[in-house]
Amino acid sequence: MPAASTERTTTVVIGAGMPGLAVASELSRYGVDAIVVDGMYVPGPLQALNTGILQRCDAADAACLQERSEILRHLRNYAASHGLDVRSTTRAVRLDRLDEAAVGTVISGSVVSGSSGVSSYQWAVHTANGVLLADHVVVTRCGQSQLRRMLAELGIAIGQNLVAAMRAIGMYLVGVGELATPTPKEVLRQAKVVGQAISAKVHPDSVHGALTGTFAAIPALA
Fold it and tell me: Which helix (H) or strand (E) holds 123?
């Protein structure tokens, strides 16, 4: 079935919780457009998706939860006061990577191609309301085991240089853990690094390009 609509943006953030809002806030400070949607959702057991479900990691302790709640309150206030595009009731249902094979593909009546004849967007995030096309996608709220499965289904090889390979195709991680949820301070650090990295790609001539450093949102997956 054709999508109801097709929208274009610089970055789609999957996950409307604290990590997602933290990334969106950082991107806003750097002047980078972003749309935040809720985490991946499987609408039915018989419908095959490219990704599988991205769930929350194990619950943090009481102190972290209290700190997280306070940070989340400030982030929501920032999002509201700065008009960030946060669609907490819109869930992503599929994530597709666009490559040269996607040139000429029609998504909701629009041809996904650039003036040079190659795909002008790297990612298509499908929702119940349509398709979001973006050069960058940020994934939050998933465990590394789920991440491995999702990347394998997207055809991305898992190795020691996984994080660098993901950056090269415009995919970033914030708040991703395996046995425990990252602390709020670690999530904010990851969000800042990702915001700087995306900004450096969007505005390569800006001062932010010199601030990205080494991306270390998660350890390299073996």
Answer: strand 123-127
